[in-house]
Design brief:
Blueprint lengths: L1 E11 L9 E7 L21 E4 H11 L6 E5 L7 H13 L4 E6 L4 H7 L5 E5 L13 H17 L3 E8 L5 H13 L8 E6 L8 H12 L5 E3 L3 H5 L3
Parallel strand pairs: 2-4, 4-5, 5-6, 6-7, 7-8, 8-9
Antiparallel strand pairs: 1-2, 1-3
The structure holds iron/sulfur cluster.
C-alpha cells in the first residue's frame, strides 16, 4: 500500500475547541468535495501529493514530531479518501508515537469513517451547509446523511467529539435550525464537547449581526457554542 501525502509539519492548532495546541499536521492528498472557500486547494488533487510506502510515511511522520506535541491531525484534502492508509498511520501515531489522534474530515463517507475510528481519539465532525457548494445540490442530502452517521458513530464510541460549521454571508438561519433539529432528534447533542461556528475567511464573510443571529440559533440547543475564526490565518502561520 502507498499513501499520497501533501505535507507533514508542526504548527499551532488554529481552529476549533483545541485552538492553540501544539499539533502535528499530516495532510493527505486528494478530496472529492469542492467547497468554494477551501483554503488548501493545493491538496485537492491526488496528483499533487508525494507517494510513500507505509514504512516511508511512518518514518517521515516520526521524523517531524516535536516535543510536547498535544495531538496529530489527520487532515487534507480529505483523509478518508485514503482510509486504509490513514487507519494504519493513525495506529502507528497512537500506539508507537504515543500521540493523541485527531480526525479532521468532511465526513463524506460514514463507512470509511467507521473503519478508521478505532484508532482516532478526537473527532471534529464538520457539517457543510448548502452555501459551501461542497457537492452538487442533488447530492447534498446524501452528504448530510453521512455527516449525521459519522457524528453518531463518534458519540456512540465515546470519542471526544465536537461539531464545526463554516458560516458565510449566505448561510441561512433556517438551514442551521434544521440541522440542529436533526442532531437533537437523534439524541446526539448531549455527546458533543462543543459547537463551533467558523466564519469563512475572505470572500463571503458574514457580518457580526449575521454571526450573532446564527449563534443565537445554535445557543438554544448548545449553550457551549463558540464563534471561532481560523486563528492561524490571523497569525500568518501554516
Ligand atoms: S472538504 Fe475540506 S479539503 Fe475538501 S474542498 Fe472542502 S474545505 Fe477543501
Amino acid at each position: 500500500m502507498r499513501v499520497g501525502i501533501s505535507e507533514v509539519f508542526t504548527s499551532i492548532e488554529g481552529e476549533g475547541i483545541y485552538l492553540g495546541t501544539k499539533t502535528l499536521f499530516i495532510r493527505l492528498a486528494g478530496c472529492p468535495l469542492r467547497c468554494f472557500y477551501c483554503d488548501t486547494p493545493y491538496a485537492l488533487s491526488m496528483g499533487n501529493g508525494r507517494y510513500y510506502s507505509m514504512d516511508e510515511a511512518k518514518a517521515l511522520i516520526g521524523s517531524r514530531v516535536k516535543g510536547n506535541t498535544f495531538k496529530a491531525n489527520f487532515t487534507g484534502g480529505e483523509p478518508l479518501l485514503q482510509h486504509e492508509a490513514v487507519r494504519e498511520l493513525a495506529r502507528y501515531v497512537r500506539d508507537e508515537l504515543r500521540l493523541k489522534t485527531y480526525l479532521e474530515s468532511s465526513c463524506y463517507d460514514a463507512s470509511r469513517f467507521a473503519y478508521v475510528l478505532p484508532y482516532i481519539d478526537i473527532c471534529k465532525i464538520e457539517f457543510k451547509l448548502s452555501d459551501a457548494h461542497a457537492v452538487m445540490d442533488s447530492h447534498h442530502g446524501r452528504l448530510l446523511e453521512n455527516e449525521l452517521l459519522c457524528l453518531r458513530y463518534a458519540v456512540e464510541h465515546g470519542k471526544a467529539t465536537y461539531i464545526k460549521v463554516v458560516v458565510t454571508a449566505q448561510s441561512r438561519r433556517e438551514e442551521v435550525e434544521e440541522l440542529l433539529g436533526m442532531i437533537s432528534g437523534d439524541g446526539l447533542g448531549k455527546g458533543i464537547e462543543g459547537f463551533v461556528l467558523q466564519p469563512v475567511n475572505g470572500t463571503g464573510e458574514p457580518t457580526l449581526e449575521h454571526m450573532l443571529a446564527l449563534y443565537d440559533t445554535v445557543y438554544k440547543y448548545h449553550p457551549n457554542v463558540r464563534i471561532i475564526p481560523q486563528m492561524h490565518k490571523v497569525m500568518g502561520i501554516p
